[in-house]
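Honest question from a wet-lab person: if I give you the sequences of every part of a complex, can you actually get the arrangement of the whole thing, not just the pieces? Trying it with mine:
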Amino acid sequence: MNQVILYTIISLSATGVAAAIILFLIAQRFRVIEDPRIDDVEDALPSANCGGCGYAGCRNFAEACVKAENMSGLFCPPGGNDTMANVAGILGMEALEQDPEVAVVRCSGSFACRPRTNQYDGATSCAVASSLYAGDTGCQWGCLGHGDCVRPCEFDAIHMNPETGLPEVVDEKCTACNACVEACPKDIIELRKRAKRDRKIFVSCINEDKGGIAKKSCSVACIGCGKCEKVCPHDAITIENFLAYIDPVKCKLCRKCPPVCPTNSIHEIGFPPRKPKPEPVAKTLEAGESDEPTKKEDKK
Amino acid sequence: MRTFRLGGIHPPDNKITAGSSIRELPVPEQVSIPIFQHIGAPPKILVERGAEIKVGEPIASSEGFISAFIHSSVSGKVIKIDKVTDISGYKRMAVVVKVDGDSWQDGIDRSPELKKEIKIEPQEIIQKVLQMGIVGMGGATFPTHVKLSLPRGKEADYLLVNGAECEPYLTSDHILMVERTNEILCGISIMMKALNVEKAIIGIENNKPDAIARLTECARDFKGIEVAGMKVKYPQGGEKQLIKTLIDREVPSGGLPIDVGAVVFNVGTMFAVYEAIQKNKPLIERVVTITGKDMKDPGNFMVRIGTPVSSLVEAAGGLPESTGKVISGGPMMGKALNSLDVPIIKGTSGVTLLPEAESSRKEIQNCIRCSKCVTVCPMGLEPYLLMALGEREMFERMEDDKAMDCIECGSCSYICPSNRPLLDYIRLGKVEINKLRRARKN
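Yes, you can. This is the full assembly:
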């Protein structure tokens, strides 16, 4: 009996030792030599795996950085310039500075502004809804309000406002990772240059219908009247297909265009309130269009 | 009785308008004729604003092989060439004509007398079908001349004609088969000549005994046309299901009917072909069923293309108060309308008004893996799995699981006890897979 146990122990140990030797040899033979810098770069990244860089995740991006000859085309939006400087330091390369960006929702067709013409009761997904029809208002361009942009956000930076039925971006949290931009089937969300103190001026509409049709379906639609284009001293505003667009690079945030917009579709956010001029009387718009700490004013 | 093997459902057929004969809908004051009414490339507009046009005049010519001509369905003045809201709510190019009288273009034979003799050659038939703007009238609106031009090396040995009309509520094909029997048979003979086939089979579900009897009787005068009764089962009218039922062949995944030697047309298309070839009349009007349980006077109307749905609803006694959804097509495959100003197009076989209680979707619950959707899928797919993949945006795996074979019949969504929007997500997946495929090509 004892002998059996003894032989068992000896034979099993021998098998174990033999297997260990074989495994060791195989591991030596097929060893994958990985650049240790990949781990270092990965540690320097924010590990959000958001995909904003265009790669599958942070590891993938780190590999790409190590392989690359220079840093052009490689940028981690959540990390920003600091992270990229770190990464470049590890790799002994020079970082390319990029302007920080922020996501901007270009639709202000809230429940109050856009009358609902029909009711959708299908799956709660903008992608599904837009593959079926144009939307539950007269505007075929506007926000569908099912929150496809909210779900992919890894930074809790975009929320639906139940009062307006529109998404709102929290500027401090937004890293411009592009996830919401890609998720929106209507291409409403845009990444724009982040200015000082998160100030921004943009046309909050993408309706390319003729003025009359646009205005009929939504009271705050851009009607392409061209008033803002005329008043802009920096040539930053272009009008195409009955829609104004403010170039975020050319725009100097001079605040000349918002007051002339007849439909209040140009939003200015983050500015101190305008000083009311004695003549003509400034009138503050009622709240409900945007929860941002702003005062939108209309000179009439 | 013949039927297809896999899946299928039995929705209540509600054919309220069966047996109500075709009535002519008066020409409306204004029509808007969408330029893009078919699958394929958008055609080129031929008319200008302010032009005076007659009934039957071409207003857009086909661009590229898969495209179709569009003709004016009324006479009058072009007042606008602009974007008009279509069924889905998106704005598309359309020619808006203010109607003035009803003067037809020369050469169109409007007499009801039957012209049986086929004088022209197969090549000419295909040319004429193209110029007369004939597209598939079952709903998919695929240009007919494309189906007639067989790819090299392929030969058809059967012409199958779809008279199944398996969609609940709709009766436009049914009434056409009863009232225009000889015209349809003549249209089939023309198509047989164009395709050089000897045999044609008309498949009709046996809830239409009058149509079967009438066609069987008249088909004796035509060579090679057989009439086959089929068991009632949705979606028997699907191209692939019809081929399986009638000639017991299976179209391979991703293949076309011609791969198994069959070409399938709808009876409505056959009638349009007859009128185009024998009477020189382009596709400018079609039979549309307007139906609904609470409608005062539902029926089958001969409607000019471009007529707004609202005038059709008015002709049938106005919009009932209980209406929840107005659907272009039938309740299974139709699309809910965004507004009543939408024009009737070549593919509109019916307009169904569903009461609020029947039309609204129920609360979505979790999948209980009962596999009812798998059992009823006529294409042998796994809808619950495809939906799960669609929700997670795993479109590549959806492609591997043959989402593109889905015929969008809606049987899965109909049968699901948890009211899951299965088809919605499969449809989304198909759109995304098409995008992926295009990206791969470039």
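Two things worth pointing out. Residues 101-299 of chain A form a domain with the Alpha-Beta Plaits fold (CATH 3.30.70.20). Chain A touches chain B through 15 residues (CB under 8 Å).
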